[in-house]
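Can't paste images in this forum, so I'm doing it all in text. The chain is below; anyone willing to post the predicted structure tokens underneath?
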Amino acid sequence: MALRTKKTVVFAKIESVYGTAVALVAADAIQTHAAKVMPLEGSTVKHEFDGQTFGNDGDVHVGTHVKVEFDVELQGSGTAGTAPKFGTLLKACQMSETIVATTSVTYAPASSGTDALTMYFQLDGQRHALRGARGTYQLKLDSQGLPYLHFVFTGLWVTPSSVADIAPNFTGWARARPITFANTPTVTLHGLASVYKSFAYDHKNQVEHFDNPGEEMVEIVDRKPDGQISLLAPAISVKDYFTTARSDTTGALLVVHGLVAGSIVTFNAPVTQLLQPKYGEDKGRAMLEANLSFVRNAGDDEMSLVFT
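Text version of the structure:
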């Protein structure tokens, strides 16, 4: 009987010892959207023997590893000071977690101390597991759409198997509200309150798999965060974003989504640089479209995600 793609569930849990798999249970389920697995990543090397005929002598897989990617809805836990269920995923993307009881949970970039995950990609009785998984993420905030975090994880190879599915338990996963006038009260770029159409942030961790004598691991070795934004274009007399970009001037980007305590998320990037802004169009209205670069100040402070 054919495998049913609708029966796809991802599970994840932080490892105590890097690369040592932990058993995953129903409560470790991730409420994903559009999950997919790349079950045999890496490269190949060729046997190339001398002889009297043309043809192939066979290939050998090397550097074998596994990748998983998926979206989760961006939404707080519902209780201020309680981490969202996807917090473990952010920590495995080298983000620090700071919890202030009953008040806030803040995630910020880090340059060391990355957690790693054991993960299962479960497809209708087929299990593709990863050990020592680390990753990167993007934010996707489009007007009149749901806010998403998009994750990509790279992990060590585990032989896949046909096993009984774990029935997922999604308790604690909150459903996001769409990006609208009513739900998204604040968007400011370089001090100007803006009407915006779309915003994307890419954390751009450089995630590398190493398979050498004496080591097999996944490491995050750098990050270069960037993004894009589309705003209702202001008159130049109100805000001259073109000269701002030409002068390499930086300023803050602030996006606040949500209204109810426990469900408010704030993206704050205090040193944001506009790159090559241009005009676009949305239903007859001029838009300002720009690439963004998020610059470190004192270090590990390009941006933060705060849940209150």
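The two ends are 47 Å apart (CA to CA). The chain has one domain: 8-40+59-307.
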